[in-house]
Write a structure and sequence with these properties.
6-stranded parallel beta sheet, globular, alpha/beta
Length: 209
Amino acid sequence: MPDKISVVLVDDHALVRRGFRRLLEDAPDIEVLGEASDGLEAVKMVRELRPSVVLMDCALPGASGLTATREILEALPDTRVLMLSMHSEDTWVRKALDTGASGYVLKNADDLNLVEAVRSVAAGDVVLDPSLERPSNLKGERDSGLTERELEILQLIVAGKSNKEIATDLDLSTNTVAVHRANMMRALGIHNTAELVSYAIRTGLVNIT
């Protein structure tokens, strides 16, 4: 049996943590290693337990979830952080993704499927709550186009390589590759990898040999 997806839960409300823990532990492939109630405790716990995924509340007492996420990813860049929030405004979404979070979901959403969201970010995908509007400054193409590094990664995506394979080829962390992939899709207004590959080929952004 494959290794379980290890998770640390971070939320300042014990009832919320209990509810999320119950949901996750019903899944046979997920294991909750611990719970933290504030940002400082979260950073310490994640450093010690080294989970695959951190479920991080955006608004925490003391160090915010955004600050904690930044510190966690500086220390453990391959950790995946899924941000949980009550805020649907694009400013919050943008800030969360800018810290390196691998996803942003609304904790009060009626259709929240936490188990699938955790599985997706653990697999290297970027998860955005379907009810969220795409941040306004992330719609359409950038004036300056894609960066040199993004084009390099895009070439490998089109070649069918996974985030892990690309990370090995370019000597990057898998999380860094995933963030670059997400940045490209947001910048181009594209929603999935198949669309990204199609767009790259159609517009000649990559060389097809």
